[in-house]
Write a structure and sequence with these properties.
The protein is mostly helical. It folds into 2 domains: about 40-250, no CATH class; about 255-510, no CATH class. The protein is about 75% helix and about 0% strand. The longest helix has about 55 residues, at about 40-95.
């Protein structure tokens, strides 16, 4: 009986993440096309990053403008009400969004044929969690808040849980259609900004602030749903207990990292909100919101740099150290002058951007601006630990910082008031930077800090007298003159070399090795047999396929 070999069009060959099962090389050294799904081109990666960066610039700039307008129109007490309610709901949104979408996006990127079944499962799970949290939020608001307007504000912000549960952005992030995601983000922000700008004129219309935010979110989500329905059909949510169990087990580390970073960045505001008057919450929340916009660009930088860091995990420690050196140097050169300038010009900036009612916010801005460089570098170090398969150390550091954030903020707020609560974030951020540096030093991948701080510090010192001189005319002249002076001084003392920029973009010496499976790092033989090795692949393919 003759046996006819099956063609590749009938049976899809299996590609494993281990070196032992890698298919043999075709003549000429290339792997068979049927066995390997080609990765995205560098031009497409740059295009996706450009789309998201442009959207973030538009959204964050618009959000800061809306924040400043609301702070002036509502006053410290009114702005404190919306700021506290938003941050309470934001913590709950974290449970609905980041607990599932990150791990799901990774699996959709690897297995696009599973988009429909995975979306059906994820929508059902997120919807059930969102409805439960929304019901609990409404009940707690009725029991704890005394005025109808405060209860209405919290309830309307709670609608963000429902819109978040219905979001399908993760599908297009995983399939690298970032243009649609960017357009959706811009629509959400512009609808919210337009409604607030033309509708909320004073504190009597404060309830419309969360209403317009929920309407803007719904508008952007409706666009994504329309595109999804045209290509894949309408989703049919299906709740699977086994799928939920696997997702929670495999995505636990990702969820803990996202939760810990959120707690570290906002625990001080929650403590202030629970222990202070509405006016104090407003004075604390206005500079907090402006600094959060700077932190957002730090997160974008971290996401863009992660592939470069991940490619260095199986190379020599010196190669990984060179990549991290370039990243830290760029961060220090960009964030250090922002922190120094924000400290020097805090008082005139508050007078110009806000009203005289926010005079107390000057000191808070001068201190709080330093959370941007500290937390950005701290989170970059944790990303480096995760990239080199030491995610256990990174998760432990973040969890320790999250656990200590609340008690430390409470103690310092009780002792020193609003500046004390702000100092707690700086203490946690500095501790995470030092601890992350120590962990990287044990791996031989620590950056050379004494080389990266010298030039930005010298250029910032030259910038300070120019800012102090020009602020006598106008604070915008001081900002522009200080930026020009810093750029000139930094270039005079050496600046950032072109090869360092190429290293950050992954076009320098840190190139990826030939990888049989896109997105999966094959372990070295010695690493695979070591008990310390932890595969970054996460969810195994058989479990995911059988469940979906």
């Amino acid at each position: 009986m003759a046996i006819t070999p099956l063609s590749s069009s009938r049976v899809r060959p299996w590609v494993s993440a281990t070196p032992a099962s890698v298919p043999p090389l075709a003549p000429g050294g290339a792997r068979p096309e049927a066995r390997v799904r080609p990765g995205p081109a560098p031009r497409r990666i740059a295009s996706n990053f450009a789309w998201l960066s442009l959207a973030e610039v538009i959204c964050r700039g618009t959000s800061v403008a809306v924040t400043l307008a609301l702070a002036k129109r509502l006053g410290p007490a009114g702005y404190g009400r919306v700021e506290l309610a938003f941050n309470i709901v934001f913590w709950l949104v974290l449970l609905v969004r980041d607990a599932f979408e990150v791990i799901t996006s990774r699996e959709l990127a690897r297995h696009p044929r599973l988009i429909r079944p995975l979306v059906n499962h994820v929508l059902a799970i997120k919807g059930a969690i969102a409805l439960g949290l929304f019901a609990a939020l409404v009940m707690i608001g009725r029991l704890t808040l005394s005025t109808p307007s405060d209860r209405a504000i919290l309830t309307l912000y709670g609608l963000l849980l429902v819109t978040t549960a219905l979001g399908l952005d993760f599908v297009y992030r995983s399939t690298e259609r970032m243009g649609l995601v960017a357009l959706s983000l811009c629509i959400r922000t512009l609808v919210y900004a337009g409604g607030v700008w033309f509708w909320v004129s004073d504190a009597s219309r404060i309830v419309w602030v969360p209403a317009w935010l929920a309407l803007g979110e719904a508008s952007g989500i409706a666009l994504v749903w329309t595109c999804y329905a045209r290509r894949y059909g309408l989703p049919r949510p299906h709740f699977g207990v086994r799928f939920l169990r696997i997702l929670l087990r495999r995505g636990r580390s990702v969820c803990l990292i996202q939760a810990a970073q959120t707690v570290i960045g906002s625990a001080d505001l929650m403590v202030v909100g629970l222990m202070s008057r509405w006016e104090e919450i407003g004075c604390y929340g206005a500079p907090y919101r402006m600094i959060s916009a700077i932190l957002t660009f730090g997160v974008i930088f971290q996401q863009a740099a992660f592939p470069t860091l991940a490619r260095s995990w199986r190379q020599a420690p010196g190669t990984g150290r060179a990549s991290l050196n370039a990243l830290v140097k760029v961060l220090a050169g960009g964030l250090l002058p922002v922190a120094v300038g924000g400290t020097v010009l805090a008082a005139p900036l508050v007078r110009f951007l806000l009203s005289t009612k926010y005079a107390e916010a000057s000191l808070l801005l001068a201190l709080g601006i330093w959370r941007a460089p500290l937390l950005t570098v701290a989170f970059l170090y944790q990303a480096m630990l995760i990239a080199v398969n030491r995610e256990a150390s990174g998760v432990r550091l973040l969890l320790a910082g999250a656990v200590a954030s609340g008690p430390l903020a409470l103690a310092l707020h009780t002792a020193f008031g609003l500046p004390g609560a702000l100092m707690s974030v700086l203490v946690i951020g500095a501790s995470l930077v030092l601890a992350g540096f120590a962990c990287l030093a044990r791996e031989g991948r620590e950056p050379a800090w004494h080389h990266h701080l010298a030039r930005p510090l010298v250029a910032s010192a030259v910038m300070v007298p120019v800012c102090l001189l020009l602020q006598r005319w106008h604070v915008l002249a001081a900002v522009a003159g200080g930026a020009a002076t810093y750029a000139f001084a930094l270039s005079a003392v050496g600046g950032i070399r072109p090869e360092e920029v190429r290293a950050i973009l992954g076009r320098g010496h840190a190139h990826a090795l030939d990888d049989p499976t896109p997105g999966v790092m094959p372990p070295r033989p010695e690493a695979a047999s070591s008990p310390r090795f932890e595969s970054p692949a996460g969810l195994s393919r058989p479990n995911l396929v059988n469940t979906a």
